[in-house]
Amino acid sequence: MNTRQRWIVWGWTAAMTGVSIYPPWRHRGTYGGPNGYHLLFLPPVRPISVDIPRLIVEWISISVIAACLYFTWPEGRTKG
Questions:
Q1: Do 58 and 19 form a contact (C-beta atoms < 8 A)?
Q2: Rg of the chain in Å (alpha carbons)
Q3: Which of 9, 12, 67, 77 is buried most, with the most CB atoms less than 10 Å from its CB?
Q4: Is residue 43 part of a domain?
Q5: 5-38 pLDDT, tens digit each
Q6: In a domain? residue 80
């Protein structure tokens, strides 16, 4: 694993952690619409729940972008 790949793995880890700690929320009940993003440990006051489908889409998007960068970003040229 070269230096760029390590940076990509660390960036993926940071992005996944950030998205997991600051997830999307949705209203429960008849309305059922999105309620924005809030900290996992300090949810909004209304009866809400984590919007799992949107969270999974974010996880997949981050993972696909990281995988594409990991496998296609060429190594840097060495001097000499």
A1: yes
A2: 18
A3: 12
A4: yes
A5: 899 999 999 999 999 999 999 988 777 788 889 9
A6: no
